[in-house]
Amino acid sequence: MGGRPMTALNLVMFPAKHLDMGLLKEILRGGHDKAAEAGAALVGGHSVDDEEPKYGLCVNGSVHPDRVITNAGSKPGDALVLTKPIGSGVLFNAVRSGRFGFAELEREVLPTVASLNAAAMATALDFRLHASTDVTGFGIAGHLFEIASGSKATVRLDYSSLPVYPGALEMYRKGEGTGSNLQNRAMVADSMTLRASLSSPEEQILFDPQTSGGLLLSVAADDADDLAQALGAAGVAVATRIAEVVEGPARLEIV
To answer: With 90 as the cut, is the pLDDT of residue 237 above it?
Structure first.
């Protein structure tokens, strides 16, 4: 964390015989626009004819050696600030199954999912930022434990402070899920203490895998409120203090 992207290569797998090539054009346009927004030059790419569409970018960048932010530098007394809601995994699946409307996803979720984390990181670097990670496929519990494990400390999550996308909990209540929740739960099961009284859907949101999730930013506790304000001023839609780092073994506590 803390780097600046410079160049990007398209990596494309696309079923050209089964899907309209116009779809590929729009995918590539989206990748180009986001790379440009991030300040990177799109310098080419590679494509393969495949059975299902896949798309990504191989990115090169630079970072000052004194400003490399890892997930292993949190200190007891730190607070953790989250910069996007959680729950995108179950919502994407619910759109596919017809339980959640695409129009609602497009209105309530996709603008945040599509936003870059660049402004959040640039803002955080002006503070005493000790550690950071993005919240992606391991879910919020997995990535909080990632910080706990890397920093050899206990992370205590205040469940009531978690920002959740509209509709996500309701989808879990209706029986929707993802293919990653069980594995994500298993990954932290031996290192997590659940003290909060949660329903099954409320627990599931802890393990929901994110697509283009926000950042977890670990800063000195007396910087946390100022950081949240600065993030809001920088246009970051969500800036919520959700957890604290305390002395103890590498564990995750949910309270």
So the answer is: no
How far is Cα 133 from Cα 147, in angstroms, rounded to an integer? 8
Residue tagged 């398209």 (tokens): 10
Q: What is the pLDDT of residues 141-167, one digit of tens each?
A: 999 999 999 999 999 999 999 999 999
- pLDDT of residue 66 exceeding 90: no
Which helix (DSSP H) or strand (DSSP E) does residue 55 occupy? strand 54-62
Q: What is the CATH number of domain 4-65?
A: 3.30.1330.10
Q: Say what the pTM is.
A: 0.91
Residue 100 carries which side chain, given as an amino acid letter? F
Q: Where are the domains of the chain?
A: 4-65, 69-254
What is the rounded CA–CA span in Å between residue 5 and residue 32? 13
Residue 2 has pLDDT above 90, yes or no: no
Query: Which helix (H) or strand (E) element contains residue 7?
Result: strand 4-14
CATH of range 69-254; options 3.90.650.10, 3.40.50.2000, 3.40.50.720, 3.30.930.10: 3.90.650.10
The letter for the amino acid at 200 is S
> Helix %, strand %, coil % for the chain, to 5?
40, 25, 35
Rounded percentage of the chain residues whose pLDDT exceeds 70 = 100
193 three-class SS: strand
Q: Nearest CA to 18 among 42, 53, 67?
A: 53
